[in-house]
Amino acid sequence: MSLKIIHCADVHLDSAMSGLNTKKVNIRRDEMKRTFARIIELSKNADMLIVAGDLFDGKNVSRSTLDFLKGEFSKIPETKVYIIAGNHDPFVADSVYKNLNFGENVHIFGTELECIEMPEYEIYGISFKSPNDEREMLSGFSVKNPDKINIGVFHANLGGVDYNPVKVSDIEKSGFDYLAMGHIHKASGMNKAGATYYAYCGCPEGRGYDETGEKGIYAIELTKGSILSADFVPVCERMYFDEEIDVTDISGYDEIVDRINEKYKGEKHIYRFTLTGKSNMAIDTDILCERIDGFSVVVRDKTEPAVDIEKLSEEFSLKGLFARFALEDKENMSEEEFNEALKLGFYYIEKEENNENR
Fold it and tell me: What are the sequence ranges of the domains in the chain?
């Protein structure tokens, strides 16, 4: 026999969504619910849905979110739902996991390793008991019935030193057929240690510029000792993109926008473009943001002046005089402030020189 599993993690419902205004935060929170609803839809033909930690972003969960979840879980009464609490939503005294019944098909693992025995399989899970649970929850463990299909659900830091540190050797000795992991927000691909397959599925929705690109879940078909299929299924509403744009030798906004458009993926997404290279252009990033369509667009100017400031300071000219003054004051500024001051100074000097030549 085989088992069909939907493996998700790090949903972070009711997330603060840093970097967005209040209106867009609320839009994104609703979108994250729609994403989870898609995961539920995918689970209708599965034997189980695994949520490997951090279903919530914190302990303060809105009533509307709790009602939403109960409603969604009720749509898959024939699918077993297995949930563990992670570092963001630990299983503490006032946790919603302790105080709310999510439905008969939903099981939430407590803070001690627990095994649920089913005719077709056995599944093990354990929740975080604090935001930084440093127990090595898999260390020294092996399954009770190695002849059955055995599944583990852990929110863990593979190769780390905190947040339930797990070693590959622990996975190898565990006896699991599949270890569904959460905590890392990037899908890992399917890995194998000994006879155990394991994976991070990543988060289903990016929430910042450190969570770029396509996000989703794993749809797995598993039999004893073998993965028949393991498909990464994208489910995200929007993607984050964090791109560097070299603007060396570019002299106008049109050219910068053309360069940005080479990495543009459509207006529904969330962008941060960092301008790099050497340029004496005084770049108004607000102008660029207005010319790029997106749910949210940030443009940062990290360019450096296209000039040898030390050599320029030796010249007997207005720019040379400005360069000498700038170097004298350099220690009072950050590198970014210094570069911005140089570019602005050169911009106004060149503007004045052009006016004089008319």
Answer: 2-234, 240-356
